[in-house]
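Subject: for your reference before the review

Hello V.,

The reviewers asked for a structural picture of the protein, and I figured it would be easier to keep everything in one thread rather than splitting it across files. Below is the amino acid sequence we used in the manuscript, unchanged from the supplementary table.
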Amino acid sequence: MRHLLPALIAAILMAIFIALDTGRSLGAHPWWSQKTLLIGAPIGLLLATLAGFKLRPMPLTIATMLGAILAFATAKYGQTQFAASYAEDQLAGQLWYLGWVATGALTAAGLTSAAQWVLTRG
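And here is what came back from the structure prediction:
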């Protein structure tokens, strides 16, 4: 049961992010800003919980946070290219959408591993 506590903490934080619609304020499309985080968050929670059984929390936290930064950069690149093409570039639209799903997944995974790191240190 103690392995699920970090995921529960991260799930509560992700629920707050989704309720506040932080994706929209950071550049996600208004129609699917919450949807992408709702898709990505459970994936990240599950992956980080499973990875926590084999990997140490600190390197996992660093790796997932770097991945979240790269996913966010991909989403921003897709957003700018999609807008510059006047909604014609389908690849840029997919990068924008899937970049936000990956951002949600890796943020949830990072929060889970960070919570695990804090709980195991204490």
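For the response letter, the relevant points are probably these. The chain is about 80% helix and 0% strand. Helices lie at 5-19, 22-26, 33-51, 57-84, 90-121.

Happy to draft the paragraph if you're swamped.

O.
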